[in-house]
Each structure stands twice: as structure tokens, then as C-alpha cells.
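Title: Prediction job returns without error message
Component: structure pipeline
Severity: low
Priority: P3
Assignee: unassigned

Description:
Job completed but the reporter wants confirmation the result is attached to the right record. Sequence as submitted:
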Amino acid sequence: MAKIFKFTPGSDTNAKANVQEFITRCREGLDVFGPEVNWDSNFWTGVVGFTKAGVNPRKVSAADLLNSDIIPFAKAYVTYRKAHNPSARDPARSIVPIRCIEPALLKIKKVADISLVDPVVLDHAAAVARECYPFSGNMASSELNRFVKFLLEHKLVSRAFHWKCSIPGPKGGGRTDREGKKASQDKMPPEHVLNYMAEMFSNNPQNLADKYVVSLFALLMSAPARISEVHDLPLDCLHSEKDRYGSPKLGLRFYSGKGFGPAVKWIPTVFKDVTAKAVERLKELTDEGRRVAKWYEDHPDQFYRHAACPAVDDNTPLTVTQVCDALGVKYRGLPCFARAFLKNLANPIASFLHENSITLDEVTLAILNRYARSRLPKDFPWKNKQLQLKWSDSLFCMRANELHHQRGVSPIIIWGPGSSSISSALSITSGTREMQTVWDRNGYKNPDGSRVSLTTHQVRHFLNTTAQRGDLGQFDIARWSGRANVSQNNTYNHMTDDEHLEKINNFPALTALAGPLGKIAAHAPVTLADLGAIGDVMAHVTEFGFCVHDYSMLPCQKHRDCLNCGEQVCVKGDDEKLARLTLQRDAIALQLAQAEQALGEGYYGADRWTVHQQKTLDRANQLISLLQADDLEAGALVRLRNDQEFSPLKRELSATSSQPKLSEGVALETKSLAQER
């Protein structure tokens, strides 16, 4: 592991000196990218190119490089960031703020001196970020803020200041306007394109490149995965076991990014046979590549003897045609063509011979073995050292040019496909517009006649949305997708508004939970608002329902006589309280019969008790009748009025009313009639 250091500025006032010291220490003290990266080069292979913002990395000229004054600091910053965060997947992100600040410095300060950065320069840099990173503005904003914090903490700027960048990312799928809905649907693969791919898989294309694309696409459809995760599948990637019901299930052994780690992603039952067939085809396609990789592991000093290899001793000089046969180079049967190929320094073998001062007459299989070893992938025999995955155990161990449509396959150079291998075969980009895709080669077009284009990430969106439509739990969706954060599920959910409404309509229990009946079932507090009353306080629970009386205004005037109270609310569907009410009704009927018997026997007060029990029994029967009515839906609120109910408020209103009493009204009317006569 490379040694690292924490930079401490040597001066509190001289920012220029601190910048120079930082560059020197990083150049001399850090070696995090290995010997393959040359500090003096402006293109660090596999890491980053020190180019301006917005430059196409495939077409770079000297004018596209960052200003020479800022490049040393950019190299130091990228190296320092990588040293302190070795697990960072994309070290090139750390150069984003420098690419934004460089044109700002040249415009405002006329010189690309990092120590002159101030809020004015940063405001201009933020504008550059908005223009150059329209689809990842939040990433650029985050990197700018991190960079400014780094400059201030290490005293690499002339004066301290406070500045923060806030660039929103692209408007997400949460938008409900026409634009937002279209953007959401564009992330899903068109149905006709999926049908095209299904047809190609069924036809089992014999073209190696098409077989690779179609089989890999089948794996992407088996479970949500990133293309890098699929390319890191081991040879024994299929995992089978029985579920708790004894039914067999099949899964893929993935190592997921974004913090989830290793996991088996289970394959839908209807797709198991497709997945197994895709893995079988890929094994057949990559079998020879694994054989070569295993040879290099087991025979470090011997050249791989493939079918076309010359049958000579390792140290016997080869003719130019034998060299080409050993390398798998097609020379059209012309020795002159073979010699021209081996002398062309643009070819790796010619460059190798030239660098090692080896003439064509001196080439042997032993020398070609040295050349083949020099072309082995980095970290060989490991394809992914973190996963402990060797090339000889990888499902995607191929030979160079295995998928190329024109060049011959190299029998001795092992190679693994990357994201561009599948993306260029599926989608049309500015850099691959003239290249044929798998759709073009097999004669597929969109219904409007345009060329078909698809990204692998659209498949991931499709599977996540399908899982949402199938009501898979959010945690299960995140686990199936290899996602550590459940909240990210929403980004991949493209269900339409109508689909959401249909789900709600198909599950009335979801709506019931919003009312009192749902809360009763869930033992949740019921508020006055739930019962049609005013207020958000909790309702008082009674034997037969709920009380909506406001106890802050007046104590209860009907204590233990809830059936005769106009402030009791019953809920249709609460079977427990209905049963309790039925028992109470039977008890009241028994008490009424006893009161009527006492009235017949002349007991004092029995008449008043009989009237009260009859009124209570009538209200109980009314409530039970309503709560058992078929035409009343579950969750309905039932509240009986009681116009004869006594209350201090009614008494006070009656006492202060200007309307005459009944007897007074009759007298006044009689007097008026007499006067008219």
C-alpha cells in the first residue's frame, strides 16, 4: 500500500508557497496509480486526461489541454484525493472543479494561479459548471464545494472567504407535468424493442458479437444489475436452492456496487430457463479464453500451443509466416504481407521487438511468450482482486478481437469486454453513429423507420418498475437491485398516475386506514376530525363508539347514559362494539319489563323509570338497525339526534328567547281576534 501524508501548510500568509509545496510533496511522496502512470504525461491512462471542460476525450489536441500553469496542481490534487480515498470508483471526478475554475481564473485574473481563487472567480466557475455539466450539475456543485473547502483548510488561497455552490441536478421523475412524464417514460425500454431482443435470443444468432450481446441482455433482464457487475460474474454464477415451500429457485451470484456487497439475486420463475440458457451460451463462447488464461497461470515459461501454432521447439527461430501463425495474424498467404505487418511499429508486436532490439530473424516462441506475457491484463491472474475472481474463473474471459467483425481473433491474448462493448452494440451515440448495432445487423427498426437504440440502464429501470407494479416490498426491491439505500427506489419507479390510482382502487383497505374503522383495526388513536367533528384532539372511547364532546368547554352531562346522548358516534363495521350494544339492548329490554311490572303493582317512581327505559330501548334498536343495514357501507359514521335532550345551553337559550311561550302565544292571539270583532 502506498504511503500517504496529511498536508500541513508551511505558511499562514503565503498561499503561493503553500501551493508549490503541495505540488512537490504529492509528486515526490505519492505513488497511488502505479508505475503505469507517468507524472509528466498529460494523459493518465485509465485515470484521467488533463483537458478542459467539455472536450471530447477521443479527439484531443494541444489546445484542448488545461492551462500549463494549473496542470501541476491538478495532478497533485487528483493524486492526493485518490491517496486519501482509495476506494473512489471514479478519480476523474476530482478534476471537475479545476476544469470549471481554470477558464474563470483566465477570464477574471488573466492567469491560471490557483492561489488567486476568490468568490468572484468561483461564481464564474459555477456558471461554467452549469453549462458544461447540464445533466450532472449536482455532482459538479458537490465537487466545487469540496474543492473550495480543501483550498481554505490548507491555506492555498490568498484570503479566507465564505462561498457555497448550489446547482440542482436535472428535474427528476417526481414531476407530474407533460415534460416530466415524458422524461420518466423515456427511461423505460420500448416494448417493441424488448420483443426484438426476445426474438433474437430465440433465434440463437451464430455471430459471436451478437451472441454475446443477446446473452448478456438476457442476464440483465434476469435481475437488476449494472453492466460492470454482470462482467464480473464468475463461471459458477448460477445458484440454486429450494424455498420454504420446497419449490426450486434459481439466482445469480452478484457483487453489487453502491455499498450493498455480495448477494444472490433471485430470478423470476418465468425467466429461469432463459437465464440458464444465456449462461450456457456464454460459457461456450468464452471457453477458449479461460483455457488460455489457465495456461498462463500454470505454464509461466511456455508459449500457448494453440491449433495453428507452429510445431517447433521454443527456441527455434521462426519465419515471418510462422510468427504470424503463432500470433493468429492473417497474412493472406503472402510472406511479404506478414513481413510488412511485423515491421509496422503501429502494431504491438513490432513495437515490442523494436523496444527489445530483436530482429525478425531472431524471433522464437520463447520470445513470443515474453510478448504475450507483456500483454496480460493488469493484476493477472486476477480479473477482480477485490472479489478474488481470476480470469480463468470468469464467465467473461475472452480473447482479443473475439467480438470484432473484421480483425482475426488473437489465440494468445486474453481480454475482457467492458461497458463500451455492450453500449456500442445496443445504442447510437455521437461517437458510434456510423457503427452498426445489433439491431442494424439483424434488420430491426422502430415502427417509424428510425434506427433502434437502447441503453442497459433502461433495463434496470424496467425491472424496478415491474417490481413496483407487482407490489414487491421496497426493501426487497432495493435488495434485488443491489441497492443499499431504499430511498433510491423512487428514482427507478416509472408507474403512471393511472397505475397508482388503480392500485389504490384494488386495495380498499388502503383507503379504509384513513378512516376511523381502519384506525380501530390498527388500534390507532381516532380524532374528532375522523368522526365528523371539529378538532384534531383524540376522541373519547365509549362502550359503543366514540364521544365527540368538548370537555374543555363543559363536563359530561350524560355520564354513563351514552345511548341517550347526541354526542356519541358509532362506526359501522366495528363488530366488537356492535356485539356490546346488542347485549346492552337485551339488558335494557329486561329492565323495561321489570319496570312495567313494578308500574302495574303501583310502585312509586316506576312510571318515570318506564318512560326512560322505553326511550333508551328505542334508541338502541335504531342504532343496531343502522349498524346492521346492508345499504350502509363499512366505516360509515352513525350519530342519533336527541331533540328532547336537556343541556344548560338549551335552558339558557330558552330563558333569554324573545319568542313567547305557548300559553302566552294563545292568549295574545285570542285577544287580537276579540279586538277585530
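Comment from assignee: result matches the submitted record. Residues 15-153 form one domain.
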